[in-house]
TrEMBL record:
<dbReference type="GO" id="GO:0009360">
    <property type="term" value="C:DNA polymerase III complex"/>
</dbReference>
<keyword id="KW-0235">DNA replication</keyword>
<dbReference type="InterPro" id="IPR001001">
    <property type="entry name" value="DNA_polIII_beta"/>
</dbReference>
<dbReference type="InterPro" id="IPR046938">
    <property type="entry name" value="DNA_clamp_sf"/>
</dbReference>
<keyword id="KW-0238">DNA-binding</keyword>
<protein>
    <recommendedName>
        <fullName>Beta sliding clamp</fullName>
    </recommendedName>
</protein>
<keyword id="KW-0963">Cytoplasm</keyword>
<dbReference type="InterPro" id="IPR022637">
    <property type="entry name" value="DNA_polIII_beta_cen"/>
</dbReference>
<dbReference type="InterPro" id="IPR022635">
    <property type="entry name" value="DNA_polIII_beta_C"/>
</dbReference>
<dbReference type="GO" id="GO:0006271">
    <property type="term" value="P:DNA strand elongation involved in DNA replication"/>
</dbReference>
<feature type="domain" description="DNA polymerase III beta sliding clamp central">
    <location>
        <begin position="136"/>
        <end position="250"/>
    </location>
</feature>
<comment type="function">
    <text>Confers DNA tethering and processivity to DNA polymerases and other proteins. Acts as a clamp, forming a ring around DNA (a reaction catalyzed by the clamp-loading complex) which diffuses in an ATP-independent manner freely and bidirectionally along dsDNA. Initially characterized for its ability to contact the catalytic subunit of DNA polymerase III (Pol III), a complex, multichain enzyme responsible for most of the replicative synthesis in bacteria; Pol III exhibits 3'-5' exonuclease proofreading activity.</text>
</comment>
<keyword id="KW-0239">DNA-directed DNA polymerase</keyword>
<keyword id="KW-0548">Nucleotidyltransferase</keyword>
<dbReference type="GO" id="GO:0003677">
    <property type="term" value="F:DNA binding"/>
</dbReference>
<feature type="domain" description="DNA polymerase III beta sliding clamp C-terminal">
    <location>
        <begin position="253"/>
        <end position="376"/>
    </location>
</feature>
<dbReference type="GO" id="GO:0008408">
    <property type="term" value="F:3'-5' exonuclease activity"/>
</dbReference>
Length: 379
């Protein structure tokens, strides 16, 4: 196996697959990077058993300057190989595999030889049927991930809650995450009706990794399923993730369908006030801030208190306020994370009572995106 390639193009592909390679894996060969060189392209594969990433460098793209002298496959130690390639002096890179998988790497006057492994020992990636695909703009899917993954559980005691639950019914894709203290739900209408129904839970860590890779606004992402794996196809890259097993709880009944008190704010203004109030609440054991709402007086007061440090109190100016008087306490960190994903839009916060979960929705298209936070009992 021998090829030469533009080093910058190769590094770009290398950076993509390295996201899936971990030095902590229990399967030694997975600390390596798999290279498959065929007639006109090179496929790079990285995996850590939870996620796998494949990307292809095509000889048809003149920028890659790819010249293949002989084909073959090899697994190379990912950490050393990538450090070598990134520090080489020239724009061209030549890789040649000799006897016993010894691999020669040349660029300019620099030459390295490293030991590779037989690619036949590398686990096969799952075969995934593409008969029933969902197509989405990558920009929208990245937004869905950002809005929901904040609410996945970090506790392994209930593994199913460490993922985002995706369901598809006709042309409605619904994404939900909850850690039992808060919930985030986003609906997306797909342009075309899908043939099948999806009901899957994708690990939050996999989705975060995928989100970092979705940077093109014009790109489409395609989602395909097998029994216990999902594959995302975009550009020249395939991203595989395992699915979580088990029944995701029914979260629809958690979202209140009526409210007693409502306030509207600019999301950045409310976020800034919560951040100020939480400066002191973080110093106390229970990390709680309080909202006091008096609709008749058009007053909303936010309070943070730490017995050891002091107290902060601030009167806020809501854009709209209606309903009954209310005092409610909650974890400011949940509120901050929820408000950040609304960007610069206006939000409506709707309360039913001091001890019932409250919702945060955008003032426009409020049925598409809901954040729900459970209050803290302080008495």
């Amino acid at each position: 196996m021998k090829f030469s390639i533009n080093r910058a193009s190769f590094i770009k592909a290398l950076n993509i697959v390295q996201r899936a390679i971990s030095s902590k894996t229990t399967i030694p060969i997975l600390t390596g990077l798999k290279l498959d060189v065929t007639g006109n392209n090179i496929m790079l594969t990285g995996s850590n058993a939870d996620i796998s990433i494949q990307t292809t460098i095509s000889g048809d793209n003149p920028d890659n300057d790819l010249k293949i002298s002989s084909t073959g496959s090899i697994v190379l130690p990912a950490r050393f190989f990538s450090e070598i390639v990134k520090k080489l002096p020239d724009t061209e890179l030549v890789v040649e595999v000799g006897d016993n998988f010894q691999t020669n790497i040349k660029s300019g006057n620099s030459e390295f030889t490293i030991n590779g492994l037989d690619a036949n020992g590398y686990p096969h990636l799952p075969e995934i049927s593409t008969d029933n695909s969902i197509d989405l703009p990558a920009e929208i899917f990245k937004e869905v991930i950002g809005q929901t993954v904040i609410a996945v559980s970090k506790q392994e005691s209930r593994p199913i809650l460490t993922g985002v639950h995706f369901t598809l019914d006709q042309n409605q894709l619904l994404a939900v995450a909850t850690d039992s203290h808060r919930l985030s739900q986003r609906k997306v209408s797909l342009p075309a009706e899908s043939d099948g129904a999806y009901n899957i839970v994708i690990p939050g860590d996999s989705l975060k990794e995928l989100s970092h890779m979705l940077d093109s606004e014009k790109e489409q992402i395609k989602m395909d399923l097998s029994e216990n794996q999902v594959m995302f196809n975009f550009g020249a890259t395939r991203f595989y993730s395992r699915l979580l097993e088990g029944m995701y709880p029914d979260t629809s009944r958690l979202i209140p369908d009526s409210s007693a008190t409502k306030i509207q704010f600019s999301a950045p203004d409310l976020l800034a006030a919560v951040e100020r109030a939480s400066l002191l609440s973080h110093e106390s054991r229970n990390n709680v801030i309080k909202l006091t709402i008096k609709p008749n007086d058009k007053v909303v007061t936010i309070t943070g208190n730490s017995p050891d440090v002091g107290k902060v109190e601030e009167d806020l100016q809501p854009k709209e306020i209606s309903g009954e008087d209310l005092e409610i306490s909650f974890n400011p960190d949940y509120m901050k994370e929820a408000l950040r994903v609304f960007g610069k839009s206006d939000v409506e916060v709707a309360f039913t009572s001091a001890l019932r979960p409250f919702t945060i929705t955008p003032t426009e298209n409020d049925h598409e995106f809901i954040q729900l936070i459970t209050p803290v009992r302080t008495f």
